[in-house]
Amino acid sequence: AIETQTNFAVAWSNLGCVFNSQGEIWLAIHHFEKAVKLDPNFLDAYINLGNVLKEARIFDRAVAAYLRALNLSPNHAVVHGNLACVYYEQGLVDLAIDTYKRAIELQPHFPDAYCNLANALKEKGLIEKAIALYSKALEVFPEFAAAHSNLASVLQQQGKLQEALLHYKEAIRISPTFADAYSNMGNTLKEMQDVQGAIQCYTRAIQINPAFADAHSNLASVHKDSGSIPAAIQSYRTALKLKPDFPDAYCNLAHCLQIICDWSDYDERMKKLVSICYHFSITPINLPTTSRQPIFQINILHKPVYDHARSLVPSGGKLRIGYVSSDFGNHPTSHLMQSIPGVHDLSRVEVFCYALSPDDNTNFRKKVSSEVANFVDLSQIQCNGKVRWKCDGIHILLNMNGYTKGARNELFSLRPAPIQAMWLGYPGTSGATFMDYIITDMVTSPFELKDQYSEKLAYMPNTFFIGDHAQMFPHLKVRLRRSQYRLPSDAVVYCNFNQLYKIDPSTLVMWCNILKRVPNSVLWLLRFPAVGEANVKKFARQTCGINANRIIFSAVAPKEEHVRRGQLADVCLDTPLCNGHTTAMDVLWAGCPMVTLPKETLASRVASSQLACLGCPELIAESSQHYEDIAVRLGTDLDYLKSVRAKVWHKRTTSPLFNVKRYVSDLEQLLFKMWRKHENGQEVDHI
Question: In which pathway does it act (predicted)?
């Protein structure tokens, strides 16, 4: 038709539709443009041109085409809806919302417009309105798979996991090849601790769409959380092949490689991590062992939150303290602080413990819950759980999770308490405007480094760290034998019982230098995880020239055995990049001296704080060489080693480090200082 009538606009438009159906986008654009040039009043051609330009993400020209169509047909609801989609993609959310609303005014039974308007409102934080609109879309068109999936996503974010699951299943019933719904349902099942169900969903999403990078990354995250690190590495690498600009996957891959001490291309990896630190999708938990400059962390951690006015609580009566944690159970945090809530002076304070995780039926959970009058399980409470805290009249709320697993920082962002402070469980700044203080000490957080924290520093007089070892292990009854762990009876045994991710190449080089200078010595590490053992030994052999037999690995042990066997080591070598925290307390309680080297971050200075509180500052190094020298002296001057071990053994029961009652008294004084400032109308400031 075009050959015989070159000015036949309809033929040009029809051919544009053919090219578009064949995926020939540029040819389609050319033919639609020719059609509207031939016939400036050709409505369908303008609409088709706008659609194909939208698909090609040429948004400015798409807007122009849709506006021209609306000039010809001002009440065309579908064009308003498509134009709104382009505005949304351009980031013009308010304009998109107004345009979606106009589309709905023109066509009240327009499910796509309801669903897309809901998406825009969700982005604005108007969650309840979004839910109502998703529901309206489903009322108009019950078989709308995308609306079911989007509604499920919002319900999942609210913690309504069972409801979310039902809607994901409906979306998949309607559209059995809906890969996004499978992947998102996998996220819900993962949150419900159904690991196998999550794996099945991610695997199905990948079967449907092998190029679905997010599904590969989600599958990797389940493998990572399950300890299947090699499988996680493989899936993260696949995700990055499909989507090279995927910072979240890259950081998680880097973390997995660090977990197993795979240091191939380590320097380049670290440079890339620093280069992407400002990317919005990076989560704080990926950062503590990668960024050496804490100020980077603050830039990443600052996220916009809703601005909620802080309500004042009347003075008088007892100070109400709320401990909030997902770790009231068999977790290192509970191992440290399980006695603290029950030791408070109840004539001065009223204690509340809010559990963010279900009861694991361990003695740790039972101890905390039985020793406080107010133990509340919030694990099934949604975002409006702040109502409970406000009803309880909490004065000071302590965030023990930070950005660790199980955290519910969205609750803190709602400002349910007049004062909110970070404490113990997360080794770093929150970077959040809704956290007022971080409870720390002068060694861990020197005042000259205050600008590295978004919170104001609230100093404990000795150390912010505490251990419950005096109550858990009042005496170490059974003395284990070195032969049980294949340790030489006559060797100097250096140990480190941390997870292997805390070791970096420079740390292992220092340790190998120490082994070289102390010939009759071995290094004792844990298979934490087991897959890292070969990499550590290979690096020691190939890079440092150390016989792999001098590095002895043992399995991870139950808590009591883990603490007891610390007596078998002569010296603990701390990891400077990220110190032993709970692990450091374990070895010190066993009477084993620990050598540490503080760096810039909070996580790298905790061991120094512990040693200073213990009264052993001579074990805190000022440089890498000094670190090696301290360790070598302990390994070669056996009289000196004996005296230091005797000192540590004595100080563990006479210093404040393991004194829970003294710690609680100091903590109460600090909390009262915070409250007095608040009562007096003073600004939050360093204490």
Answer: Protein modification; protein glycosylation
